[in-house]
Design brief:
single chain, alpha/beta, 5-stranded antiparallel β-sheet, 15 strands, about 25% strand
Length: about 375
Amino acid sequence: MFEILVIDDDRSVQIFLKRILEKQGYEVITASTGEEGILKTLNSPPALIICDWIMPGLSGLEVCDRVKKDPRLSTTFFILLTSLDSVANRVKGLDAGADDFITKPIEQNELQARVRAGLRLHQLSQDLHTQKLLLETELAEATEYVKSLLPLPLNNPLKIKFKFLPSRQLGGDCFDYNWLDADCLAIYLLDAAGHGLKATLPSISVLNLLRSRALKDLNYYQPSQVLAALNNTFQMNYQNDKYLTMWYGVYNRVSRQLTYSSAGHPPAIIVSGNSPINTEVKRLKTPGMPVGMFPEAKYVDASCYIEKSSILYIFSDGAYEITQANGTLWSLEGLIQIFISLQYSVENQLDYILDYLISLNSKETFDDDLSILQVKFD
């Protein structure tokens, strides 16, 4: 049974509306002032409120404004009862959040019809709200599943830590690292375009393929071949317009050589040197289109020698494409400067980096997934 709250300082109007609506099978509660009406609304949120516009104390507009600003009452349908029928007054009512109007003197059939319509919209809003909560719960569970797939931090013979901060929407970031043999470590990070399950599923598929080494006759020691094989496997088509960017590298801890290749992904950054005055920064990136975009895409390898005390950062674009409080977009250069400034000043750099990025972001949550891998070679 739907509950309807009638707020009117005229006792005769209360009785009239209560009698009509109870005949229709609704449970009707009454209040004589705006303040009393708000208290009853908060105590037991009704499906629909009929409120007089002009009352002593809080007016109907003020009651409407307070009700509509309360998230707990988002599905409550609000009807203003008024003898003010000018366009200007109706605009004021709509601006305050009113859903409908009933003009005095009240016509019984019109009242019943507007209440029925309002309750249908209330029920629809409730159903949508329930579905939204269900979807959010499922997305949260999916996010936890993605987190459970991520590798554990590595402490020996080199140290790998990471930060993974999903956006409000499920995204496409994923990363992993594993030993190809006793001396060679494969490490990669990918970012599927878009949000939601359509972005997450390709990322998980790539992760599972590479972990299981299911791509036969593939040299996993050669990054360009890995990207080419993935590009052939995950081609876009008319039903699936998703592609992904990726950085893939193989580090030989004996020769200290890092071989890498990238597919439209931000460069990995190596910060090296033994003091702030001789810090060296290298951007590790090779030409290559995102995986899945073009079947004829070519990928190339590059390599570099890892100096002592170097730190490697691999990250998604969510780590620097951040909207600041002034409305401007932060930059990759800003992120690199943070890496440099923390190289010699603190031990747990990733914690400081994440705190800084959170303070930099102008919104409660990030627009995109944020992933940063940190590799300390010594």
